[in-house]
Design brief:
Blueprint lengths: L7 H10 L7 H21 L9 E5 L5 E3 H17 L2 E6 L6 E2 L7 E9 L10 E9 L9 H4 L8 E7 L3 E6 L4 E7 L4 E6 L10 E3 L10 H11 L10 E2 L5 H11 L2 E4 L12 H14 L3 E3 L19 E4 L1 H11 L4
Bound molecules: 2,5-anhydro-1,6-di-O-phosphono-D-glucitol and manganese (II) ion (2 copies).
The site of one manganese (II) ion has 6 residues, from strand 5.
């Protein structure tokens, strides 16, 4: 008889049973993230029919055009977590200030990129959501801004939802990385990728190569290196880039290789956001045995100065990331 599939709820309950100190709240929190994923996936499936494509006419705190779906995704996180009572602050890429939620005893802080890859919305390409969970010592009543500004090593859980050909929830609570696929007919996430391990080295690179002439020489040299033919080291690598960080990193997580959004000569901080994108994906990839760096520093060790700060990101298979670092640092 075929094995009965493991649902997200059952998986979480079983994991919790292994940690008697756990209160169960954390499990609810992960389930709520799954719920947001289901709600957004539902919207995205009909996006081309419901006049929810295109822009709102506004720009966000990052100075970027806000898509209607960015707004919808952000509102969905706010609605779900205002009701959950577990989160004392919600910080989002789409909100200038973190949203305090005064819930008695709420001890979690949630940081989200509610919709990642939003330039893909109008063309039916993959999208994602990224989340990072931290524990608060003080709670919303006493102000939590300073508490949010801590290194990525302080995350207690992180992950993403990928809205691709199917919807997936991939997360870590610091004990490996697990992937669940949404079975739409029953509305349940089922365990599809248990204990994901990223290969030590891959054959794929993922980068917006249109920026080549903006990169410092070391980064250019690394990209040139990846394209040289050399059977022994598996080169040339294949280029794959969807414009959705979640989708591109997911491919690398499963198949190996390296994703780069490097610093540019005139913009050394790069494009991606440390708190909403870099840190959570770094925790996931490290938990799967890979690495994530700015080129100079481990992402999870970067001391944040502001909530919306940007960071160069090179993430993926440990060997590939190490080699990229060697080029960037002028050691190769
Ligand atoms: P977001 O949609 O949350 O603003 O993120 C967009 C990010 C990321 O998903 C993607 O990897 C990158 O921006 C694409 O940027 P380019 O268009 O510069 O390649
Ligand atoms: Mn993003
Ligand atoms: Mn976004």
């Amino acid at each position: 008889m075929a094995k009965f599939p493991i649902t997200l709820s059952r998986f979480i309950i079983e994991q919790q049973a292994a940690h008697p100190e756990a209160t169960g709240e954390f499990s609810v929190l992960l389930t709520q993230i799954g719920l947001v994923g289901k709600m957004i996936a539902h919207d995205l499936r009909r996006a081309g029919l419901n006049q929810i494509l295109g822009t709102t006419g506004e720009t966000n705190i990052q100075g970027e055009v806000v898509k209607k779906l960015d707004q919808i995704a952000n509102d969905t996180f706010v609605r779900v977590f205002e009701q959950s009572g577990l989160v004392c602050v919600l910080a989002s890429e789409e909100m200038e200030q973190p949203l305090k939620m005064v819930h008695e005893g709420a001890k979690y802080m949630l940081l989200v990129d509610p919709l990642d890859g939003s330039s893909n919305t109008d063309v039916n390409m993959p999208l994602g959501a990224i989340f990072s969970i931290r524990r608060s010592q003080v709670g919303a009543r006493r102000g939590v801004e300073d508490e949010l500004l801590q290194k990525g090593t302080q995350q207690i859980a992180a992950g993403y939802v990928l809205y691709g050909a199917s919807t997936m929830l991939v997360f870590t609570v610091g004990q490996g990385v697990h992937g669940f696929t949404l079975e739409p007919s029953i509305g349940e996430y089922l365990l599809s990728n248990e204990n994901i391990r990223i290969p030590k080295k891959g054959k794929v690179y993922s980068v917006n190569e249109g920026n080549y002439h903006r990169w410092p020489a070391g980064t250019q040299k690394y990209l040139d290196y990846l394209k040289v033919q050399d059977k022994a080291t598996g080169r040339p690598y294949s280029g794959r880039y969807s414009g959705c960080l979640v989708a591109d990193v997911h491919r690398i997580l499963l198949g190996g290789g390296v994703y780069l959004y490097p610093g540019e000569t005139a913009k050394p901080e790069g494009k991606l956001r440390l708190m909403y994108e870099g840190n959570p994906l770094a925790m996931v990839v490290e938990q799967a045995g890979g690495s994530a760096t700015t080129g100079l520093t481990r992402i999870l060790d970067v001391e944040p100065k502001t909530l919306h700060q940007r960071v160069p990101l090179i993430i993926g298979s440990a060997e590939d990331v190490g080699q990229a670092e060697a080029y960037i640092q002028g050691r190769a």
